[in-house]
Amino acid sequence: MIIERPRAGTYTKLGYAGNTEPQFIVPSCIAIKESAKVGDQAQRRMMKGVDDLDFFIGDEAIDKPTYATKWPIRHGIVEDWDLMERFMEQVIFKYLRAEPEDHYFLLTEPPLNTPENREYTAEIMFESFNVPGLYIAVQAVLALAASWTSRQVGERTLTGTVIDSGDGVTHVIPVAEGYVIGSCIKHIPIAGRDITYFTQQLLREREVGIPPEQSLETAKAVKERFSYVCPDLVKEFNKYDIDGSKWIKQYTGINAISKKEFTIDVGYERFLGPEIFFHPEFANPDFTQPISEVVDEVIQNCPIDVRRPLYKVTKAVKRFGKCARLS
Questions:
Q1: Model's pTM, two decimal places?
Q2: What pLDDT, in 10s, does the model give residues 72-92?
Q3: What are the residues whose beta carbons fall under 8 Å from the beta carbon of 282, sequence distance 6 or more?
Q4: Given Cys at both, which of 38, 56, 181, 231 links 322, Cβ 3.0 to 4.6 Å?
């Protein structure tokens, strides 16, 4: 089982070894009775019994208006271990339908995770679920290992610079021979949530047909369905101006109040949203350093003997834009 903790509205990805993609992707939330208030872990321990069985996780939790929906994980860090243990119980038995005593488990952790959090995780897995073996790996290292499937055998390495962008924060993580260089990790306050807000702002300025109460939800759907990073901003504008019908997409939604369909055109927003990684001042006037400069700064802060290998394998970063953006 793999648990990724990339953002505030976290999703848990889980599956079995050998598969190319996760079998399940579920929101990392849990719905409990309102009587069990947030952070009141002592009260919940006193109410063991029936209430412990009356909870839901994932999409079911979001759809329970009479329950309190809690997110045990915030910014990749577990804040409520009681709820996290119950969440993991449902993940293992209900989704994976596995006997934990018969399987080894691989869990992921965010960069700079504390030893205490790692210890709590191991305690739950060994004492509550009695697993025979557990390995906790940093997401950045696993990302490099996952890239092996697209590389020749001679090019496979666990050295590289990984950009881990979640909902609320983006980390730039240098990895040398499978070891994270923790002192050189940098984070930037630009991430998926900012792309959503910026896309929402662009759509509000142009599209008047979006229900106000659904503008954020619409922007998120547009981002996930249509957004991409363009190689050259000026050329991309020209493409849309010359042949807009080829590139402009349409998004259709349902008005939550009137239940009628509404349709909007999605044009420049497709590439202007992700562009805030290279022009962060579009979304955050207090932060103006583009992602390419952050990557270069991270590598320069690393020990001199690993800089050349790190620069050599920054090809993965080029997915954010063309090579010139890394110079």
A1: 0.74
A2: 887 677 889 999 999 999 999
A3: 198, 272, 275, 276
A4: 231
